Automatic annotation (TrEMBL):
The organism of origin for this protein: Mucilaginibacter gotjawali
Listed Gene3D superfamilies: P-loop containing nucleotide triphosphate hydrolases
Protein name: DNA segregation ATPase FtsK/SpoIIIE-like protein
Gene Ontology terms, MF aspect: ATP binding; DNA binding
Lineage of producing organism: Bacteria, Pseudomonadati, Bacteroidota, Sphingobacteriia, Sphingobacteriales
Pfam families in the record: FtsK_SpoIIIE
Length: 90
C-alpha cells in the first residue's frame, strides 16, 4: 500500500495508491485498528511474530480457532508524512 497525499504517482499499480489526504488519514486509522487486533491475536496465541502465528494457525495449534485467521504481512509506504499530518489537509 502506498500512501501518497500530493497526487504525484510514479507507480505502475495505481489501484494500491491512496492520494487524497482524508483517505490517507482514514487508512492509517484503519491500519492502527488492524495492528491492535493483530496484537491481541498474537497475544492469545502466545507468540511474538506473524510467522510463528501463521505456522501455529496452519497446524491448528491455536485454541479458539473461530477467533483466529491467517495474517498476511502488511507493508505501508508513506510519502510526505508531513502533508498527511497537516490539519488543514483534512
Amino acid at each position: 500500500m502506498l500512501l501518497h497525499p500530493n497526487n504525484t504517482i510514479f507507480c505502475r499499480d495505481t489501484d494500491a495508491v491512496i492520494t487524497a489526504p482524508r483517505d490517507v488519514t482514514d487508512t492509517l486509522s484503519s491500519l492502527c485498528r488492524e495492528a491492535d487486533q493483530r496484537f491481541e491475536l498474537l497475544k492469545d496465541a502466545q507468540v511474538r511474530h506473524i510467522k510463528e502465528y501463521n505456522e501455529k494457525f496452519a497446524k491448528r495449534k491455536i485454541g479458539n480457532p473461530e477467533k483466529h485467521r491467517y495474517l498476511p504481512h502488511i507493508v505501508v509506504v508513506i510519502m510526505n508524512l508531513l502533508i498527511c499530518l497537516n490539519p488543514k489537509n483534512n
